[in-house]
Design goal:
The structure is a single chain. This protein is α/β, with parallel strands linked by helices and about 500 residues long. It has two domains: about 240 residues, Aspartate Aminotransferase, domain 2 (3-Layer(aba) Sandwich), CATH 3.40.640; about 140 residues, Aspartate Aminotransferase, domain 1 (Alpha-Beta Complex). Helices cover about 45% and strands about 10% of the residues. The protein has 14 helices and eleven strands. The strands form two sheets. Strands 1-7-6-5-4-2-3 form a seven-stranded mixed beta sheet, with helices on both faces. A four-stranded antiparallel beta sheet has the order 8-9-11-10. The longest helix is centred in the last third of the chain and has 36 residues. Bound molecules: pyridoxal-5'-phosphate.
Protein backbone atom coordinates (compact mmCIF):
# COMPACT_ATOMS: atom_id res chain seq x y z
CA UNK A 1 0.00 0.00 0.00
CA UNK A 2 1.46 3.36 -1.04
CA UNK A 3 0.95 6.60 0.89
CA UNK A 4 -1.63 7.64 -1.67
CA UNK A 5 -4.76 6.15 -0.15
CA UNK A 6 -7.75 5.86 -2.47
CA UNK A 7 -10.76 8.15 -2.25
CA UNK A 8 -13.01 5.71 -0.37
CA UNK A 9 -10.32 4.65 2.12
CA UNK A 10 -9.52 8.27 2.94
CA UNK A 11 -13.18 8.99 3.43
CA UNK A 12 -13.84 5.94 5.62
CA UNK A 13 -10.80 6.62 7.82
CA UNK A 14 -11.72 10.29 8.15
CA UNK A 15 -15.29 9.48 9.19
CA UNK A 16 -14.03 6.89 11.64
CA UNK A 17 -11.82 9.53 13.24
CA UNK A 18 -14.52 12.20 13.29
CA UNK A 19 -17.00 9.79 14.86
CA UNK A 20 -14.55 8.81 17.58
CA UNK A 21 -13.70 12.47 18.24
CA UNK A 22 -17.34 13.36 18.39
CA UNK A 23 -18.01 10.58 20.91
CA UNK A 24 -14.99 11.77 22.85
CA UNK A 25 -16.25 15.36 22.96
CA UNK A 26 -19.71 14.14 24.02
CA UNK A 27 -18.08 12.33 26.97
CA UNK A 28 -15.95 15.18 28.28
CA UNK A 29 -18.35 16.73 30.80
CA UNK A 30 -18.36 13.47 32.76
CA UNK A 31 -15.25 11.67 31.62
CA UNK A 32 -12.87 10.57 34.37
CA UNK A 33 -9.48 12.17 33.85
CA UNK A 34 -7.79 8.77 33.98
CA UNK A 35 -8.26 5.16 35.05
CA UNK A 36 -8.17 4.33 38.76
CA UNK A 37 -4.83 3.58 40.38
CA UNK A 38 -4.01 -0.07 39.77
CA UNK A 39 -5.68 -0.08 36.33
CA UNK A 40 -3.46 2.58 34.75
CA UNK A 41 -1.27 1.14 32.00
CA UNK A 42 2.37 0.96 32.95
CA UNK A 43 3.26 2.17 29.47
CA UNK A 44 2.60 1.80 25.81
CA UNK A 45 3.22 -1.78 24.65
CA UNK A 46 6.46 -1.54 22.78
CA UNK A 47 6.35 -2.40 19.08
CA UNK A 48 9.29 -3.20 16.82
CA UNK A 49 9.79 -0.92 13.80
CA UNK A 50 7.11 -2.12 11.35
CA UNK A 51 8.76 -3.45 8.21
CA UNK A 52 5.51 -3.57 6.31
CA UNK A 53 2.28 -1.71 6.96
CA UNK A 54 -0.94 -2.87 8.59
CA UNK A 55 -4.59 -2.23 7.97
CA UNK A 56 -5.10 1.50 8.78
CA UNK A 57 -8.59 1.05 10.27
CA UNK A 58 -7.30 -1.60 12.67
CA UNK A 59 -4.28 0.54 13.62
CA UNK A 60 -6.52 3.55 14.27
CA UNK A 61 -8.92 1.47 16.36
CA UNK A 62 -6.03 0.20 18.47
CA UNK A 63 -4.74 3.72 18.92
CA UNK A 64 -8.15 5.09 19.97
CA UNK A 65 -8.50 2.30 22.50
CA UNK A 66 -5.14 3.11 23.95
CA UNK A 67 -5.20 6.91 23.90
CA UNK A 68 -8.87 7.43 24.64
CA UNK A 69 -9.80 4.47 26.80
CA UNK A 70 -6.57 4.31 28.79
CA UNK A 71 -5.15 7.81 28.45
CA UNK A 72 -4.95 10.88 30.66
CA UNK A 73 -7.59 13.44 29.69
CA UNK A 74 -6.70 17.05 30.32
CA UNK A 75 -9.76 18.05 28.17
CA UNK A 76 -12.11 16.51 30.75
CA UNK A 77 -14.37 18.89 32.68
CA UNK A 78 -13.09 17.09 35.79
CA UNK A 79 -9.53 18.24 35.21
CA UNK A 80 -8.65 21.07 37.60
CA UNK A 81 -4.95 20.89 36.92
CA UNK A 82 -2.40 22.88 34.98
CA UNK A 83 -3.17 25.32 32.19
CA UNK A 84 -4.26 22.65 29.69
CA UNK A 85 -7.74 23.40 28.39
CA UNK A 86 -10.43 21.52 26.53
CA UNK A 87 -9.58 22.57 22.99
CA UNK A 88 -12.42 24.34 21.21
CA UNK A 89 -13.85 22.12 18.50
CA UNK A 90 -12.98 24.87 16.01
CA UNK A 91 -9.34 24.31 17.02
CA UNK A 92 -9.64 20.66 16.18
CA UNK A 93 -11.05 21.44 12.76
CA UNK A 94 -8.43 24.14 12.18
CA UNK A 95 -5.67 21.69 13.05
CA UNK A 96 -6.99 19.15 10.55
CA UNK A 97 -7.15 21.80 7.86
CA UNK A 98 -3.64 23.07 8.60
CA UNK A 99 -2.27 19.53 8.65
CA UNK A 100 -3.75 18.89 5.21
CA UNK A 101 -2.94 22.17 3.48
CA UNK A 102 0.37 22.38 5.31
CA UNK A 103 1.07 26.05 4.66
CA UNK A 104 4.77 26.85 5.00
CA UNK A 105 4.57 30.03 7.00
CA UNK A 106 8.26 30.81 6.62
CA UNK A 107 7.61 32.96 3.61
CA UNK A 108 4.92 34.94 1.87
CA UNK A 109 5.60 33.16 -1.42
CA UNK A 110 4.29 29.92 0.03
CA UNK A 111 1.69 31.22 2.43
CA UNK A 112 0.53 34.71 1.67
CA UNK A 113 -3.08 34.19 2.75
CA UNK A 114 -2.10 32.15 5.78
CA UNK A 115 0.38 34.87 6.78
CA UNK A 116 -2.33 37.48 6.45
CA UNK A 117 -4.62 35.50 8.73
CA UNK A 118 -1.77 35.25 11.22
CA UNK A 119 -1.11 38.99 11.08
CA UNK A 120 -4.80 39.71 11.39
CA UNK A 121 -4.94 37.61 14.57
CA UNK A 122 -1.93 39.49 15.96
CA UNK A 123 -3.70 42.75 15.11
CA UNK A 124 -6.91 41.69 16.89
CA UNK A 125 -5.08 40.74 20.07
CA UNK A 126 -2.70 43.73 20.04
CA UNK A 127 -5.67 46.07 19.69
CA UNK A 128 -7.30 44.44 22.73
CA UNK A 129 -4.07 44.98 24.69
CA UNK A 130 -4.89 48.64 24.23
CA UNK A 131 -1.91 49.59 22.12
CA UNK A 132 -2.62 52.64 20.02
CA UNK A 133 1.02 52.98 18.98
CA UNK A 134 2.43 50.64 16.30
CA UNK A 135 2.88 47.04 17.36
CA UNK A 136 3.70 43.73 15.80
CA UNK A 137 3.99 40.14 16.85
CA UNK A 138 4.31 36.60 15.74
CA UNK A 139 3.05 33.16 16.63
CA UNK A 140 5.40 30.80 18.41
CA UNK A 141 5.40 27.18 19.48
CA UNK A 142 4.35 28.32 22.96
CA UNK A 143 5.21 30.52 25.90
CA UNK A 144 8.77 29.29 26.26
CA UNK A 145 9.71 30.36 22.74
CA UNK A 146 7.77 33.60 23.20
CA UNK A 147 9.61 34.44 26.44
CA UNK A 148 12.92 33.62 24.81
CA UNK A 149 12.04 35.80 21.83
CA UNK A 150 11.03 38.70 24.07
CA UNK A 151 14.28 38.49 25.99
CA UNK A 152 16.28 38.71 22.77
CA UNK A 153 14.26 41.78 21.74
CA UNK A 154 14.93 43.45 25.09
CA UNK A 155 18.61 42.65 24.84
CA UNK A 156 18.97 43.90 21.26
CA UNK A 157 17.03 47.03 22.06
CA UNK A 158 19.43 47.95 24.85
CA UNK A 159 22.59 46.54 23.25
CA UNK A 160 22.06 46.64 19.45
CA UNK A 161 25.55 45.27 18.76
CA UNK A 162 24.85 41.88 20.37
CA UNK A 163 22.95 40.65 17.32
CA UNK A 164 26.16 40.65 15.23
CA UNK A 165 28.95 40.71 17.81
CA UNK A 166 27.44 38.65 20.61
CA UNK A 167 27.70 39.32 24.32
CA UNK A 168 31.48 38.88 24.23
CA UNK A 169 31.76 42.28 22.54
CA UNK A 170 29.98 44.08 25.37
CA UNK A 171 31.76 45.92 28.12
CA UNK A 172 28.61 45.70 30.22
CA UNK A 173 27.26 42.94 32.40
CA UNK A 174 23.50 42.84 31.65
CA UNK A 175 21.07 41.64 34.33
CA UNK A 176 17.29 41.35 34.44
CA UNK A 177 14.52 40.55 36.91
CA UNK A 178 11.44 38.41 37.55
CA UNK A 179 9.90 36.90 40.65
CA UNK A 180 10.57 33.65 42.44
CA UNK A 181 7.23 32.53 41.00
CA UNK A 182 7.99 33.29 37.33
CA UNK A 183 8.05 30.37 34.90
CA UNK A 184 11.30 28.45 34.49
CA UNK A 185 11.31 29.26 30.76
CA UNK A 186 12.76 32.63 31.82
CA UNK A 187 15.80 30.85 33.31
CA UNK A 188 16.16 28.81 30.15
CA UNK A 189 15.91 31.96 28.04
CA UNK A 190 18.67 33.62 30.07
CA UNK A 191 20.95 30.66 29.50
CA UNK A 192 20.11 30.30 25.81
CA UNK A 193 20.51 34.00 25.10
CA UNK A 194 24.06 33.71 26.38
CA UNK A 195 23.43 35.95 29.39
CA UNK A 196 23.72 33.03 31.74
CA UNK A 197 21.07 32.06 34.25
CA UNK A 198 22.84 34.06 36.97
CA UNK A 199 21.96 37.23 35.07
CA UNK A 200 18.37 36.63 36.11
CA UNK A 201 17.64 38.12 39.51
CA UNK A 202 14.68 36.41 41.12
CA UNK A 203 12.80 38.83 43.36
CA UNK A 204 10.67 37.55 46.27
CA UNK A 205 6.89 37.91 46.22
CA UNK A 206 4.58 39.52 48.76
CA UNK A 207 1.87 37.63 50.66
CA UNK A 208 -0.43 38.22 47.69
CA UNK A 209 2.16 36.39 45.50
CA UNK A 210 3.05 39.56 43.59
CA UNK A 211 6.50 40.84 42.84
CA UNK A 212 7.75 42.92 45.78
CA UNK A 213 8.38 46.20 44.00
CA UNK A 214 10.33 47.66 46.93
CA UNK A 215 12.83 44.81 46.80
CA UNK A 216 12.96 45.08 43.00
CA UNK A 217 13.90 48.74 43.11
CA UNK A 218 16.53 48.21 45.78
CA UNK A 219 18.01 45.31 43.79
CA UNK A 220 18.19 47.45 40.63
CA UNK A 221 19.99 50.19 42.56
CA UNK A 222 22.35 47.66 44.12
CA UNK A 223 23.12 46.11 40.72
CA UNK A 224 23.84 49.51 39.22
CA UNK A 225 26.11 50.35 42.16
CA UNK A 226 27.91 47.02 41.65
CA UNK A 227 28.57 47.74 37.98
CA UNK A 228 25.86 45.59 36.42
CA UNK A 229 23.54 46.91 33.70
CA UNK A 230 19.86 46.20 34.37
CA UNK A 231 17.94 46.10 31.09
CA UNK A 232 14.62 44.30 31.57
CA UNK A 233 11.94 43.29 34.06
CA UNK A 234 9.66 40.32 33.43
CA UNK A 235 6.28 40.74 35.12
CA UNK A 236 4.03 37.69 35.24
CA UNK A 237 0.34 37.95 34.48
CA UNK A 238 -0.90 34.65 35.88
CA UNK A 239 1.83 32.58 37.45
CA UNK A 240 1.95 28.88 36.73
CA UNK A 241 1.61 27.73 40.31
CA UNK A 242 -0.86 30.27 41.69
CA UNK A 243 -2.40 32.31 38.86
CA UNK A 244 -1.32 35.52 40.62
CA UNK A 245 -0.79 38.65 38.57
CA UNK A 246 2.04 41.04 39.38
CA UNK A 247 1.26 44.72 39.87
CA UNK A 248 2.08 45.64 36.29
CA UNK A 249 1.45 49.37 36.79
CA UNK A 250 3.96 49.59 39.65
CA UNK A 251 6.50 47.56 37.67
CA UNK A 252 5.95 49.72 34.57
CA UNK A 253 6.66 52.82 36.70
CA UNK A 254 9.97 51.30 37.82
CA UNK A 255 10.86 50.32 34.26
CA UNK A 256 10.21 53.89 33.15
CA UNK A 257 12.30 55.33 35.99
CA UNK A 258 15.30 53.12 35.21
CA UNK A 259 14.91 52.86 31.44
CA UNK A 260 14.19 49.12 31.45
CA UNK A 261 12.29 46.98 28.96
CA UNK A 262 9.03 45.67 30.42
CA UNK A 263 8.11 42.17 29.34
CA UNK A 264 4.80 40.77 30.59
CA UNK A 265 4.71 36.99 30.64
CA UNK A 266 0.98 36.63 30.19
CA UNK A 267 1.22 33.10 28.78
CA UNK A 268 -1.83 32.33 30.88
CA UNK A 269 -3.29 35.61 32.17
CA UNK A 270 -2.99 37.89 29.13
CA UNK A 271 -6.16 36.16 27.91
CA UNK A 272 -7.94 38.65 30.18
CA UNK A 273 -7.54 41.29 27.45
CA UNK A 274 -10.60 39.65 25.90
CA UNK A 275 -12.82 40.31 28.94
CA UNK A 276 -14.20 43.83 29.42
CA UNK A 277 -15.26 42.87 32.92
CA UNK A 278 -11.99 41.40 34.15
CA UNK A 279 -9.25 43.10 32.14
CA UNK A 280 -8.59 45.44 35.08
CA UNK A 281 -6.76 42.51 36.70
CA UNK A 282 -3.94 42.98 34.19
CA UNK A 283 -4.09 46.76 34.02
CA UNK A 284 -0.80 48.25 32.93
CA UNK A 285 -0.24 45.51 30.33
CA UNK A 286 -0.62 48.19 27.64
CA UNK A 287 2.61 49.73 28.95
CA UNK A 288 4.59 46.59 28.10
CA UNK A 289 7.32 46.57 25.49
CA UNK A 290 6.56 42.91 24.88
CA UNK A 291 3.96 40.37 25.91
CA UNK A 292 3.81 36.58 25.88
CA UNK A 293 0.39 35.08 25.41
CA UNK A 294 -0.45 31.41 24.92
CA UNK A 295 -3.73 30.73 23.13
CA UNK A 296 -3.21 27.06 24.06
CA UNK A 297 -3.80 27.91 27.70
CA UNK A 298 -6.77 30.07 28.73
CA UNK A 299 -7.93 30.68 25.16
CA UNK A 300 -8.58 26.97 24.78
CA UNK A 301 -6.89 26.24 21.49
CA UNK A 302 -5.21 22.91 21.08
CA UNK A 303 -1.46 22.83 21.47
CA UNK A 304 0.65 24.37 20.23
CA UNK A 305 0.05 28.09 19.95
CA UNK A 306 2.02 30.85 21.62
CA UNK A 307 2.33 34.50 20.69
CA UNK A 308 4.87 37.21 21.31
CA UNK A 309 3.65 40.75 20.79
CA UNK A 310 5.72 43.90 20.93
CA UNK A 311 5.06 47.62 20.93
CA UNK A 312 8.62 48.06 19.64
CA UNK A 313 7.98 46.40 16.26
CA UNK A 314 11.35 47.37 14.77
CA UNK A 315 13.10 45.04 17.24
CA UNK A 316 11.61 41.90 15.69
CA UNK A 317 13.40 42.53 12.40
CA UNK A 318 16.48 43.82 14.21
CA UNK A 319 16.88 40.42 15.90
CA UNK A 320 15.54 37.97 13.33
CA UNK A 321 15.94 39.40 9.82
CA UNK A 322 18.45 37.47 7.73
CA UNK A 323 18.90 36.92 4.04
CA UNK A 324 18.41 33.57 2.39
CA UNK A 325 19.55 32.50 -1.01
CA UNK A 326 16.82 29.98 -1.79
CA UNK A 327 13.44 31.61 -1.24
CA UNK A 328 12.05 34.18 -3.66
CA UNK A 329 10.47 37.34 -2.25
CA UNK A 330 6.96 38.49 -3.04
CA UNK A 331 7.59 41.68 -4.97
CA UNK A 332 6.08 44.82 -3.52
CA UNK A 333 4.45 43.02 -0.58
CA UNK A 334 3.83 45.29 2.38
CA UNK A 335 3.99 42.36 4.79
CA UNK A 336 7.26 40.87 5.96
CA UNK A 337 8.22 37.22 5.56
CA UNK A 338 7.60 35.41 8.84
CA UNK A 339 11.11 34.01 9.02
CA UNK A 340 12.29 37.61 9.48
CA UNK A 341 10.12 37.96 12.57
CA UNK A 342 10.95 34.90 14.61
CA UNK A 343 13.16 31.96 15.38
CA UNK A 344 11.51 29.36 13.20
CA UNK A 345 12.00 28.74 9.51
CA UNK A 346 9.64 25.88 8.64
CA UNK A 347 6.64 26.93 10.49
CA UNK A 348 3.17 25.64 11.19
CA UNK A 349 0.13 27.86 10.99
CA UNK A 350 -0.51 28.03 14.72
CA UNK A 351 -2.83 31.02 14.40
CA UNK A 352 -5.71 29.41 12.55
CA UNK A 353 -7.22 27.71 15.59
CA UNK A 354 -7.49 31.03 17.44
CA UNK A 355 -8.66 32.90 14.35
CA UNK A 356 -11.33 30.30 13.59
CA UNK A 357 -12.54 30.14 17.21
CA UNK A 358 -12.81 33.92 17.23
CA UNK A 359 -14.63 33.93 13.89
CA UNK A 360 -17.17 31.38 15.10
CA UNK A 361 -17.63 32.37 18.76
CA UNK A 362 -16.44 35.98 18.74
CA UNK A 363 -14.62 37.83 21.48
CA UNK A 364 -17.82 37.61 23.50
CA UNK A 365 -17.55 33.81 23.50
CA UNK A 366 -14.25 34.16 25.32
CA UNK A 367 -15.59 36.86 27.59
CA UNK A 368 -18.45 34.60 28.68
CA UNK A 369 -16.06 31.70 29.27
CA UNK A 370 -13.72 33.87 31.35
CA UNK A 371 -16.59 35.34 33.40
CA UNK A 372 -18.01 31.88 34.09
CA UNK A 373 -14.65 30.42 35.10
CA UNK A 374 -13.91 33.41 37.36
CA UNK A 375 -17.29 32.93 39.06
CA UNK A 376 -16.80 29.18 39.54
CA UNK A 377 -13.35 29.67 41.03
CA UNK A 378 -14.66 32.50 43.24
CA UNK A 379 -17.41 30.22 44.59
CA UNK A 380 -14.90 27.48 45.20
CA UNK A 381 -12.68 29.93 47.10
CA UNK A 382 -15.70 30.94 49.23
CA UNK A 383 -16.30 27.27 50.03
CA UNK A 384 -12.65 26.87 51.05
CA UNK A 385 -12.94 29.88 53.37
CA UNK A 386 -16.08 28.50 54.96
CA UNK A 387 -14.98 24.87 55.11
CA UNK A 388 -13.08 25.16 58.37
CA UNK A 389 -10.80 22.35 57.26
CA UNK A 390 -9.04 24.12 54.42
CA UNK A 391 -7.74 27.68 54.21
CA UNK A 392 -6.88 29.90 51.25
CA UNK A 393 -3.16 30.46 50.73
CA UNK A 394 -3.92 33.75 48.96
CA UNK A 395 -7.06 35.36 47.53
CA UNK A 396 -7.46 34.19 43.90
CA UNK A 397 -6.87 36.74 41.14
CA UNK A 398 -7.66 34.38 38.26
CA UNK A 399 -9.62 31.09 38.24
CA UNK A 400 -6.72 29.49 40.04
CA UNK A 401 -7.28 28.78 43.72
CA UNK A 402 -4.46 27.89 46.07
CA UNK A 403 -5.34 26.55 49.47
CA UNK A 404 -4.08 24.14 52.08
CA UNK A 405 -5.28 21.83 54.81
CA UNK A 406 -5.90 23.97 57.86
CA UNK A 407 -3.72 22.82 60.69
CA UNK A 408 -2.99 24.77 63.88
CA UNK A 409 -0.30 27.46 63.76
CA UNK A 410 2.12 25.08 65.49
CA UNK A 411 2.05 22.69 62.48
CA UNK A 412 5.18 22.71 60.36
CA UNK A 413 5.16 23.14 56.59
CA UNK A 414 6.24 19.50 56.30
CA UNK A 415 3.11 18.45 58.18
CA UNK A 416 0.95 20.70 56.03
CA UNK A 417 2.60 19.36 52.87
CA UNK A 418 2.00 15.78 54.00
CA UNK A 419 -1.66 16.55 54.74
CA UNK A 420 -2.10 18.31 51.36
CA UNK A 421 -0.53 15.39 49.55
CA UNK A 422 -2.65 12.84 51.38
CA UNK A 423 -5.80 14.74 50.42
CA UNK A 424 -4.78 15.12 46.77
CA UNK A 425 -3.77 11.48 46.55
CA UNK A 426 -7.13 10.35 47.85
CA UNK A 427 -9.04 12.73 45.56
CA UNK A 428 -7.16 11.60 42.46
CA UNK A 429 -6.78 7.87 43.19
CA UNK A 430 -10.01 6.75 41.55
CA UNK A 431 -9.08 8.74 38.43
CA UNK A 432 -12.28 10.80 38.19
CA UNK A 433 -10.83 14.15 39.21
CA UNK A 434 -7.45 15.77 38.99
CA UNK A 435 -5.79 18.57 40.89
CA UNK A 436 -2.31 18.91 42.27
CA UNK A 437 -0.06 20.15 45.02
CA UNK A 438 2.55 22.87 44.55
CA UNK A 439 4.84 25.18 46.44
CA UNK A 440 3.94 28.88 46.31
CA UNK A 441 5.89 31.60 48.06
CA UNK A 442 7.95 28.75 49.56
CA UNK A 443 4.91 27.20 51.23
CA UNK A 444 2.92 24.04 50.44
CA UNK A 445 -0.44 24.44 48.73
CA UNK A 446 -3.11 22.51 46.91
CA UNK A 447 -3.74 24.03 43.53
CA UNK A 448 -7.09 24.03 41.75
CA UNK A 449 -7.57 25.68 38.37
CA UNK A 450 -10.82 26.01 36.45
CA UNK A 451 -9.42 25.68 32.96
CA UNK A 452 -11.99 23.74 30.93
CA UNK A 453 -14.85 25.71 29.41
CA UNK A 454 -16.88 22.57 30.08
CA UNK A 455 -16.35 22.58 33.85
CA UNK A 456 -19.56 23.53 35.59
CA UNK A 457 -20.97 23.71 39.09
CA UNK A 458 -21.60 19.96 39.08
CA UNK A 459 -17.91 19.21 38.46
CA UNK A 460 -16.80 21.70 41.10
CA UNK A 461 -19.33 20.29 43.59
CA UNK A 462 -17.92 16.80 42.98
CA UNK A 463 -14.48 18.17 43.70
CA UNK A 464 -15.63 19.81 46.94
CA UNK A 465 -17.26 16.56 48.08
CA UNK A 466 -14.13 14.57 47.26
CA UNK A 467 -11.92 17.08 49.09
CA UNK A 468 -14.17 17.07 52.16
CA UNK A 469 -14.25 13.25 52.19
CA UNK A 470 -10.49 13.06 51.88
CA UNK A 471 -10.04 15.61 54.67
CA UNK A 472 -12.30 13.48 56.87
CA UNK A 473 -9.88 10.60 56.45
CA UNK A 474 -6.86 12.60 57.59
CA UNK A 475 -5.51 11.19 60.82
CA UNK A 476 -5.97 13.47 63.81
CA UNK A 477 -2.83 15.32 64.48
CA UNK A 478 -2.38 14.22 68.08
CA UNK A 479 -1.97 17.63 69.69
CA UNK A 480 -5.06 18.53 71.73
CA UNK A 481 -5.77 21.77 69.88
CA UNK A 482 -5.37 20.05 66.53
CA UNK A 483 -7.79 17.32 67.47
CA UNK A 484 -10.33 19.90 68.52
CA UNK A 485 -9.85 21.98 65.41
CA UNK A 486 -9.93 18.97 63.21
CA UNK A 487 -13.18 17.70 64.80
CA UNK A 488 -14.71 21.15 64.52
CA UNK A 489 -13.65 21.39 60.90
CA UNK A 490 -14.94 17.93 60.08
CA UNK A 491 -18.25 18.78 61.70
CA UNK A 492 -18.52 21.97 59.65
CA UNK A 493 -17.68 20.13 56.45
CA UNK A 494 -20.29 17.49 57.27
CA UNK A 495 -22.83 20.22 57.88
CA UNK A 496 -21.93 22.03 54.65
C1 LIG B 1 3.52 31.88 33.11
C2 LIG B 1 4.04 30.91 32.09
N1 LIG B 1 4.98 31.31 31.22
C3 LIG B 1 5.48 30.49 30.28
C4 LIG B 1 5.06 29.19 30.18
C5 LIG B 1 5.64 28.29 29.13
O1 LIG B 1 4.69 28.13 28.12
P1 LIG B 1 4.73 26.87 27.14
O2 LIG B 1 4.39 25.70 27.97
O3 LIG B 1 3.68 27.19 26.14
O4 LIG B 1 6.10 26.80 26.56
C6 LIG B 1 4.09 28.71 31.08
C7 LIG B 1 3.64 27.31 30.99
O5 LIG B 1 3.00 26.77 31.85
C8 LIG B 1 3.56 29.60 32.04
O6 LIG B 1 2.64 29.20 32.92
Amino acid sequence: MGFDLDFETRRALGYKLVDRLNDYYASLRDRPVQLPVGQRPAGHPSIELPETGEDPAAVLDGLFDELIDKGFHTPSANYFGLQNPTPTYMSVLAEALVAAINPQLASLVHARLASQIEQETVRWIGARVGWTRPFDGTFTSGGSEANFTALTLALASRFPAVVEDGLGGLDAHPVFYCTDEAHHSVDKAAGLAGLGRKALRRIPVTSSIQLDVGILERQIQQDEADGFTPFCVVATAGTTASGAVDDIVAIADICERYGLWLHVDGAYGAALVLSDRHRHIIRGIERADSITMDPHKWLATSMAAGMVLTSRPETLRQVFATSNPFMPKVQGAAAVDNFDLGLQWSRRMNSLKLWLTLRVHGRRGYEEMIDRQMALAGNFADWVRASGIFELAAPPMTPSVIFRVKLPPSASDDEIRAANEAVVREVTDDGRLWLSTATVGGRPVIRMLVISYLSGERNVDDLKTALADAARHLPDHGEPDVVTLSRRAKASVTAA
